[in-house]
Write a structure and sequence with these properties.
The strands form ten sheets. The chain has an 18-stranded mixed sheet that branches. Strands 4-9-2-1-15-18-17 form a seven-stranded mixed sheet. It is of the alpha+beta class and 1001 residues long. Helix 7 (364-372) packs across helix 8 and helix 9 crosses helix 10. Helices cover 16% and strands 38% of the residues. It binds zinc ion. The site of zinc ion has 4 residues, from helix 8.
Length: 1001
């Protein structure tokens, strides 16, 4: 291939990547001229449905009465037909399953999938024109010939049949329980922002119009049904009351019954049916004296031993706790019934619907949370998909307070338990995954969806409550409830109410803490003054937040509120310890600058504690001390030593690790060390910049003669982690400068004095690499574009005869999964690569280690001394298995003979699993390269490989080539195939930061 053309292609790829990187993903924000409170649509439903358990079908007709209260005439209505989400892997839900790793759904057979059949729309008996959304099959556009004028309504008749899926998400059948949710065609909300249409997702909920419902369900007689609304059939009520304790369901399977339900002013209708339900009921009286009937639908499989004895009264008790707590702190529960189903929900604690909820576990917290959604989403009908904080976060804030299992407060000196919101939230900064509290549900990394929506945001509301005081906070909530019940509040609406009632500006909360970056406050200086201390507080964040300064002397504590700007305050008395944000409710990006002592030289430094790994402790810098007995290489032999590091979660701004060791065979000190400055960016295109200085020294022997050399490796490295536009794509730019010196030391026989002198060989290298990691869980991929520039010289710097080169490398890596019944990893890996010199001078000086590799790159090809290798000077067939170690993510074929290209190579590695879930695979590798003999030459090999990846990195791989082209046999090499066996292991994955990154990618 023509080198210039090749470089052209590389450059084009590079430019394309950068353009994509820079292109904005945001959509234009629609400014609304009207106010959301001025009008809203009304959508009434009359549904008649028949459940056929055998075919898992619901055959139904629906009559929708759509009242257009908007000022605009509507000539189209958008509908959601969400059962279609479960039709295939290309739906909105299917794509989400591939990204988040829902293997169960990805591998599902057709019988377990779900969809809508026989869908049609009629107005006055006449079929209407309708079409699917161009991208999503669960969104439908109905065209209305005569536009619905403002203030008028139309009736739409919709026949439809639902094929229920297996219960992958919130709808479907599992364990003989039919969860019938998001099941009927339903108009999307039309509000001041226009039509709110979106595909069904696991992560992210709904937005529905309010209306009146009349539903008639035909089910087998022995089915017990829990549903939204009021059940109108007295006989059915009486029968359900017998289904508790020893009560047995003795109704006939073959008969059917018709159940009628009715309810005004609700946003949705869900029902759950099973012949196996037991039912517990309890009448609960609300603070205003009204009686609400609570029901628990239980199935023995999901009941604890205790629940079987108590008949699940703890469920109705938890419903009662929720009804009373929310009624008093938010507003009265407006409905007459409230039910909970304990059932086989997948991957979530529970799921809420108006007046009924399904809980995957029977814990008090889950039940209170789900029942609490009757306020936050049902009655206060916010746009959950766009603003999950308005329902999930506020609801979690209340449910954790209603629950008798109270959240533990965090105070200085406390150890943080691994599940705490604080620790998890800080982890999102540590790994460059920080996201704000007001994002669209689908934009959140799944880890963050839990950590931020259910962890950080509720904690921020605790902070607002701490700031306003509970009384004022509750007055704000009451007015919010009264003003917005059965309506669609937007974020600015809740802010307006809170500011109105509290008479305070709360931008710092709604636009700051919820929607913006994380604040950071620091105690900068402590100065003794007359009768007290002067404490200098610095705002390191992007906006000011009211913050508390605490001081204490033994058990006497004092707290004052500061307005959040840079300030120096006088604290009277003789405190021993100062602490900013002592309660920890204000989430900060850095806590290591919050605590200070009154005495000492390093007052604002965290105390240093040395010991074995332990949990993070606020106010303490812990240095880990771990014996290391795992290291060895071919030259130094076994190397016992130590690992010393201050690595912590949350990560510190300055990090270090050092691994001093002693080589038993080489009788010399070896080891590695790294000092790193981490910058966690609050604004701009980057999330983290890591600036580090790496050092390593180990024994080495480049020419395999009976002597020992050592190399010294110094490398300043700067890694830029770009902010993620899509949570599953991480772009990284890395600039690394390596300086390597090799010293010689001779010995002829053991015991001889070693004659060590100045560097014999040196190399300087600059690597600039752009990596795009696609962490799509089921089909990960990777793109790397790398430029190496370097020189290699003997003794003196600036020697004219120094070898100089510049080389470009491109790697594209992809996993293509196959569906399989075992729901295991099963698929096809393909990796394409190309490498070429762009520039070379004085090539004769090197042994070719810098050249593009045709066979697998081994220790000898790690010219940057970046990898941990068992044998660095590997040459084929000199009797040691360590020669057969290949670089972890290098290019080239999986072959040991050291074949190098003259100036360029391009090739493919492919492999596929033989059996689902078993790491044994077959592989085939091919490389085209120019060699000294030919302008271009084809090499290939194929065999079996036992390999495993973590995300998109090879973790370990053991390959046995069985066939190979004759030119890949390396001339004089023997034909014993086992000598071609080779392995890769990625030791870098053991670094703590890398381990944590791998877990949460
Ligand atoms: Zn929830």
């Amino acid at each position: 291939m023509d080198n210039l053309r090749f470089i052209g292609i590389l450059a084009a790829c590079f430019v394309a990547e950068f353009l994509q990187l820079l292109s904005s993903q945001s959509l234009p924000v629609q400014k609304h001229l009207e106010r959301q409170s001025d009008w809203q649509q009304k959508v009434d439903h009359t549904i008649t449905a028949l459940l056929e358990p055998g075919s898992r079908r619901i055959i139904a007709t629906e009559k929708v009465t759509y009242t257009n209260n908007s000022p605009t005439a509507l000539s189209e209505i958008w509908f959601h037909v969400w059962p279609n989400a479960f039709k295939n892997n290309e739906t909105g839900y299917g794509v989400e399953a591939k990204i988040n790793g829902n293997a169960k759904y990805f591998n599902a057979q057709k019988t377990d999938r779900g969809w809508v059949e026989g869908l049609d729309f009629k107005i006055n008996g006449i079929k209407q024109k309708w079409s699917y959304h161009p991208k999503y099959n669960d969104i439908v556009k109905l065209e209305v010939v005569n536009a619905i004028e403002s203030g008028s309504s139309i009736e739409i008749e919709i026949p439809f049949t639902v094929k229920l899926p297996w219960l992958f998400s919130r709808m479907g059948v599992n364990e003989n329980i039919f969860a019938v949710t998001q099941w009927y065609p339903k108009p999307a909300v039309y509000d001041v922002n226009g039509w709110n249409v979106f595909p069904y997702k696991d992560q992210g909920e709904y937005y529905s119009e309010f209306g009146d419902y009349k539903v008639s369900l035909t089910v087998p007689s022995d089915f017990v049904v829990g549903a939204t609304g009021k059940l109108l059939d007295t006989a059915e009520w009486n029968w359900m009351a017998t289904l508790i304790g020893e009560g047995k369901n003795e109704r006939s399977k073959s008969d059917v019954k018709i159940l009628e339900y009715s309810q005004k002013n609700i946003p949705d209708f869900a029902w759950f049916a099973s012949p196996d339900f037991r039912v517990t009921m309890k009448d609960v009286s609300l603070p205003d004296g009204r009686i609400v009937k609570t029901l628990a639908f239980l199935k023995s499989k999901y009941e604890s031993k205790k629940m079987q004895k108590t008949n699940g009264v703890e469920i109705t008790d938890a419903i009662e706790t929720a009804l009373k707590y929310y009624s008093s702190r938010v507003g009265n529960y407006p409905y007459d019934y409230c039910s909970v189903v304990i059932g086989p929900l997948q991957g979530a604690g529970g799921m809420e619907y108006p007046m009924i909820t399904i809980c995957g576990d029977a814990s008090e917290g889950t039940i209170i949370h789900e029942v609490g959604h009757n306020w936050f989403q049902c009655v206060l009908g916010s746009q959950e998909r766009d603003h999950p904080w308005m329902d999930e976060s506020i609801n979690t804030f209340f449910h954790t307070q209603a629950s008798t299992e109270k959240e533990k407060e965090f105070s200085p000196g406390d150890k943080v338990d691994a599940n705490s919101a604080l620790l998890q939230f800080r982890l999102t900064h540590d790994i460059g995954l920080f996201q704000t509290g007001n994002l669209v549900s689908g934009a959140y990394h799944p880890f963050n969806y839990g950590t931020i929506v259910y962890g950080a945001n509720p904690r921020r509301f605790y902070y607002l409550q701490e700031y306003l005081g509970k009384k004022i906070f509750d007055s704000c909530m009451h007015l919010y409830f009264i003003r917005w019940q059965f309506k669609h509040p937007l974020p600015e609406d809740i802010q307006l109410v809170f500011e109105l009632v509290s008479k305070r500006k709360l931008d710092w909360f709604f636009e700051g803490l919820i929607s913006g970056s994380t604040p950071d406050y620091a105690i900068q200086k402590i100065k003794k003054a007359k009768d007290g201390y002067l404490v200098t507080v610095k705002n390191k964040g992007l906006y000011a937040v009211p913050v508390k300064l605490g001081s204490r002397r033994s058990t006497v504590k004092n707290e004052i509120w500061l307005n959040g700007n840079d300030t120096t305050v006088f604290v009277a008395g003789k405190p021993e310890q100062f602490s900013l944000n002592p309660s920890g409710y204000l989430l900060e990006s850095n806590y290591s600058n919050n605590d200070a002592s009154a005495k000492g030289i390093l007052k604002t430094w965290d105390k240093i504690a040395i010991g074995f790994p332990n949990l993070y402790k606020r106010g303490t810098q812990r240095i880990w001390f771990i014996p290391n007995v795992f290291s060895s290489n071919a030259y130094d032999g076994f190397m016992p030593g130590l690992v010393l590091t201050n690595f912590n979660v949350p990560r510190r701004n300055w990090e270090f690790w050092a691994v001093p060791m002693y080589g038993v065979k080489s009788k010399q000190f070896t080891g590695m060390a790294n000092v790193q400055r981490n910058i966690f960016h609050k604004k701009g295109p980057l999330s983290i910049t890591e600036i580090s200085m790496r050092f390593a020294t180990f024994g080495f022997n480049p020419d395999n003669v009976n002597r020992l050399n050592s190399f010294y490796h110094y490398a300043p490295v700067v890694s830029f982690y770009l902010k993620r536009k899509k949570y599953w794509i991480q772009n990284i730019v890395e600039v690394e400068y390596d300086k390597n010196r090799i010293t010689k030391s001779y010995w002829v026989a053991p015991g001889d004095i070693r004659n060590r002198y100045s560097p014999d060989l040196q190399n300087d290298l600059l690597r600039i690499a752009f990596t795009k990691n696609v962490y799509r869980k089921i089909s990960p991929g990777k793109f790397i574009l790398q430029l190496d520039m370097g020189r290699n010289y003997a003794n003196k710097i600036g020697n004219d005869s120094a070898y100089q080169f510049a080389k470009a490398t491109l790697i594209v890596d992809k996993f293509i999964p196959y569906k399989n019944k075992q729901k295991k990893t099963f698929g096809f890996y393909v990796k394409g690569f190309a490498e070429t010199f762009i520039h070379q001078k004085n090539q004769g000086n090197t042994s070719g280690v810098y050249n593009p590799v045709v066979s697998g790159a081994n220790g000898g090809n790690d010219y940057g001394y970046r990898q941990t290798m068992f044998k660095r000077s590997a040459t084929f067939n000199n009797g040691s298995v360590w020669n057969n170690q290949l670089l972890p993510n290098g290019i080239g074929m999986r072959m040991v003979p050291n074949i190098m290209a003259k100036s360029w190579c391009a090739g493919v590695n492919a492999q596929t699993h033989l059996f689902p879930g078993i790491d044994l695979q077959v592989f085939g590798d091919a490389v085209v390269a120019n060699t000294n003999a030919k302008a271009s030459e084809l090499f290939y090999t194929a065999g079996i490989t036992y390999s495993q990846r973590i995300g998109n990195n090879v973790f370990y791989e053991l390959s046995l080539p069985l066939v190979y082209s004759s030119n890949a046999q390396a001339g004089t090499s023997p034909k014993e195939f086992y000598k071609y066996m080779n392995f890769r292991i990625s030791l870098n994955m053991y670094k703590p930061t890398q381990l944590i990154r791998n877990i949460y990618q």
